[in-house]
Amino acid sequence: MFIGILLIVSAILLSIVSMVFSITGIITIFSGAALGAGIMAGVLEFSKISATLWLYSFWRKANFLMKTYFMIAVVILISISTLGIFGYLARAYVGQGESTQRIKTEIDFIEQSIQNEQEGVVRAQTQIDQMDENFSSMIEGNFITKGLEMRDSYEKERENLIAYIQEARESINDYQAQKLLYQQELNTLEINVGPVKYMAILLYGEDNAEQYYDNAARLLIILIVIVFDPFAVLLMVAGNIALDREPRKRRGRPKGSKNKKPPSIVEQEPKSENNEPVYPEVKVNKEVPPKIHKRRKLVSH
Predict the structure, then answer these.
(1) Of 1, 179, 184, 294, which is least surrounded by CB within 10 A?
(2) What are the CA-CA distances from residue 72 to residues 68, 79, 196, 269, 279 (Å)?
(3) Is residue 34 over pLDDT 50?
(4) pLDDT of residue 174
């Protein structure tokens, strides 16, 4: 009894989850009529379980045409549910891949911006160094007045270059912080894709694994959908079989046999040397004759 109830509860839960995934996948495929597709998928899922239970209950009473059509319909509905679940899981994987690609693109853009800012800082610092070198050359050549005039002419440009370097370094720090956030998000997504990664490494080797992530993900999705909806149907049938056998066992058990134990010693008839049964002697008392009751005759007067 417990096993039957457990199987039926498991089948119901698995059917509900399968229904949700299948409806979501079918709505994704037929997004132009999402509401109608969802209602249709839900009704078909419920009808599939009902048809399965009817086939199990009335298999001997139903005619051949009805059984054949119901079986074909159940198989087709299982295939539709499987395709819906496949679409749902495939969309989830593709969406995760798109997110990963988007984050990688953002990281590449940030790295390129950091490189540009660093190159600008190098150019500005080079110009400042060149100005300082020119001023030092003038001073060393005893062209002090000309050197001071040159320094005054470069002063404003020098200040602009110094301000540019400061702003560029602040921008680099901001870009580094943004890159760190994107890198953390990318690491989280890569952790979620970990099973697919290791599966690709197992199937295609570590060198070529990155090229076959999609193939490994498809194989994993196919393995999931193969045992999802068909397993729910078989669990429902197995649960009903377990519940039906329990009353039969109870009916077949003799009344009061639960507390009675079978005899451990089997009595056998005594046998003689010729292997013939020996029956006990019946003693007859010859001294006392049996009483004979006589009927009295009625005398009519």
Answers:
(1) 294
(2) 6, 11, 35, 63, 70
(3) yes
(4) 92
Beta-carbon neighbour count of residue 110 at 10 Å? 20
Q: Which amino acid is at 245?
A: R
Rounded Cα–Cα distance for residues 262 and 239 (Å): 33
Cα pseudo-dihedral 176, 178, 182, 183, rounded to 10: 20
| Other CB atoms within 10 A of residue 281 CB | 6
To the nearest 10°, report the CA torsion of 175, 181, 187, 191. -160
Interacting residues of 28 by C-beta distance below 8 A, sequence separation 6+: 87, 88, 91
Cβ atoms of 265 and 34 within 8 Å: the answer is no
**pTM beyond cutoff 0.70:** no
Query: What whole-number distance in Å separates Cα of residue 165 and Cα of residue 181?
Result: 25
Listed in sequence order, the residues at least 6 apart from 34 whose beta carbon sits closer than 8 Å to its beta carbon are 27
What pLDDT sits at residue 27?
Answer: 82
Query: Residue 97 has which token pair?
Result: 């891949």
Q: By C-alpha distance, which of 125, 113, 104, 123 is closest to 176? A: 113
DSSP state of 258: T
Which runs of consecutive H residues, i.e. helices, occur in the chain?
2-29, 34-57, 64-140, 144-192, 194-204, 213-226, 229-252
Question: CA end-to-end span of the chain, whole Å?
Answer: 83
Tokens 């698995």 -> residue: 14
Judge contact between 77 and 48, C-beta under 8 A: yes
Phi, psi of 271 (to 5 degrees): -125, 155
What's the one-letter identity of residue 180?
A: L
DSSP state of 273: T
pLDDT in tens, 122-177: 888 888 777 767 666 666 555 566 656 666 666 777 778 888 888 988 999 999 99
